[in-house]
Amino acid sequence: MHHLAQGVQRFRRNVFPARAELFERLATTHRPGALFIGCSDARVVPELITQREPGELFVIRTAGNLVPAHAPGADAVAAGVEYAVDVLGVADVIVCGHSACGAMTALAEGRDLSALPALADWLRHADAARARCRTASAEDRVDAMVRANVLAQLANLATYPSVARALDRGAVRLHGWVFDIGTGAVEELDAANGRFAALPAA
């Protein structure tokens, strides 16, 4: 904990003064352009990967970058998506999976999660991805799960009324990404053929 407190002090002393104007503006303005739904994995940092400033991304992080299909009742993911789309009016929503994902590895390898009942129940939101990867070879199964899971979570995302309405009026675009931790490369889903390829340069 001490090193975290030291980090706060370095931020206040070395970073904040040079960015004071930005933070002063952010104190009264919140207009992110994109919603980034990523994994809770500490190695996947949306603002670092995309090189965005504070205030530019609205971020939801869950174990396995899972987005439960819309259902009655409140949950944190549904509330975050609804707020980002209906209130903030984000133009883009990205679901980003990543290499060596612990959640996808556990499912791909059929690990016993009986000692982690909350996690096991949460990972059922990846059942569609697991079903798609049953025939993948053992060596390719984790990578296949990561990609299939991005597809499955995009499908779940489209079940949210706020997202469906925004899609109908062309107000939002959905994107699927996979981030490779070891190389820093990002692949993007081509919705036309369901395959992932290197993210094109702007």
From TrEMBL:
It catalyses: hydrogencarbonate + H(+) = CO2 + H2O. PROSITE patterns: PROK_CO2_ANHYDRASE_2. Pfam families: Pro_CA. Keywords: Lyase, Zinc. SUPFAM superfamilies: beta-carbonic anhydrase, cab. InterPro entries: Beta_CA_cladeB, Carbonic_anhydrase, Carbonic_anhydrase_CS, Carbonic_anhydrase_sf. It comes from the Bacteria. Its EC number is 4.2.1.1. Catalyzes the reversible hydration of carbon dioxide to form bicarbonate. PANTHER family: CARBONIC ANHYDRASE, CARBONIC ANHYDRASE 1. Belongs to the beta-class carbonic anhydrase family. This is Carbonic anhydrase. It comes from Streptomyces aureoversilis.
